[in-house]
Structures are given as C-alpha cells and as structure tokens.
Amino acid sequence: MFFRTKKSGRYEYLQIVENRWESGAPKQRVVATVGRSDQLRESGGLERLLASGARFAENALLILAHRDGTSPAKRSRSLGPALIFERLWMETGCARVIDELASERFFAFPLERAIFVTVLHRLMVSGSDRAAMTIDGEPDPTMETG
C-alpha cells in the first residue's frame, strides 16, 4: 500500500492505494480517501494519522521520536577507521608480536604505535609512509624524527 494524490476539480485528495495482481496484470484499488491534501497539511491531520499508525511499525516510531527529539538517549560512540583498525590490530595479535620482537631492543618511542600509525595511514591515504609524519605538509611537532 502507498499514498497518492488524486486531482479532482481544483483540489487534490490524498488516497491510500493498494496494488494487487489480477489475471496477470497489476491493478490498483483505492482503500480510502483520507481528505484534501491542503486541509490535511494545514490542520496537521496527516501528521497525527501517520503518528497514530506508526505505533504498529517500530522503525517508524524510532524515526518520529528522533525527529521530535524525544528518543531516549543511549550510549553513542563515534566509529572511524582508527577505532575499527585498532580493534583488528589487537585481535589479530599484531601489537603483541611487534612488542615481543622489539622487546630486546631499546627504542626512544613506542615502536608498536609507530608501526600502527604507519599501517593505518597506508590504508587510509595512498602515498609515502613518511607523509604520516606531517600535518598539512608541515612536520608534526609531536613526531620526533631524531
């Protein structure tokens, strides 16, 4: 079923229409004429009708609640490439393997984090690995290059 407008004279009427197959051909049947489109818009009647019917469709209720600002706030979290890649990095054991291999060497920086950033950068931005050390073409002051 769907809504459509039907022009009659100088007015448009909102109708609920059903599609069905009869003798191998699609047929439309008007289930109900809701009223004049202009009057429904002005009175808010269509909004009330849809809100009333929305209680039978969970997704529609959620969308309406979000639009009205009445949806209950749950926890939200921003998912981005770094967060997703970090999860994969840890679950595959990459961090552990790098830490084990580098345990006998003494670096002045966390080697595993440097490799993580380099790999993430390579995945997200094509080009030189060394470009990860710059911000807008300028050296990143937080990255020591000594």
Strand content: 15-25%
Main beta-sheet annotation? 3 strands, antiparallel
Gross morphology is elongated
Helix and strand sequence: EEEHHHHHHEE
Number of strands: 5
Number of helices: 6
Distance between the termini: 69 Å
Q: What value does the average pLDDT take?
A: 81
Q: State the oligomer.
A: single chain
Quick structural overview:
The chain has 146 residues and is of the alpha+beta class.
What this model shows, in words?
It is a single chain. The protein has helices spanning 37-43, 45-54, 58-68, 81-91, 94-101, 111-124, and strands spanning 2-8, 11-22, 25-36, 134-135, 138-139. It has 146 residues and is α+β, with helices and mostly antiparallel strands. It is elongated. The model has no long low-confidence stretch (mean pLDDT 81).
